[in-house]
Design brief:
There is one protein chain. This protein has 122 residues and is of the alpha/beta class. The protein has two helices and eight strands. Strand 3 and strand 4 form a beta hairpin. The two termini are 21 Å apart.
Amino acid sequence: MIGYVTLGCNDMARGAAFYDALLAELGAKRMMESDRFIAWFVSPGTPGLSIIKPYDGNPASVGNGVMVGLVVQKPEQVDALHRKALALGAKDEGAPGPRGPGFYAGYFRDLDGNKLNFFCMT
């Protein structure tokens, strides 16, 4: 159902470097970009993630309660990707681990404060 998610970004070069390195771990590459946005996809027709300078010209800000969940196949991937995000400068918002029956996730905030997680169903 989700085609893509867009996150506000105040420093496109910094955001691009963060997501180039992090999303490469999932096999994602830049598929679209301009001076205002960059979008990563694993392949055409699959859900993607993008960063953008807000259209209204105001600074990007974080939506309280907004979070992007990025699905992977197994807990070891959640662990590795959470570690990678933190190594790239993300802030920990919840270490990887079980979050109820059948759900394993690790939470972080990117360089602009957007909240994301990697998760898998176990």
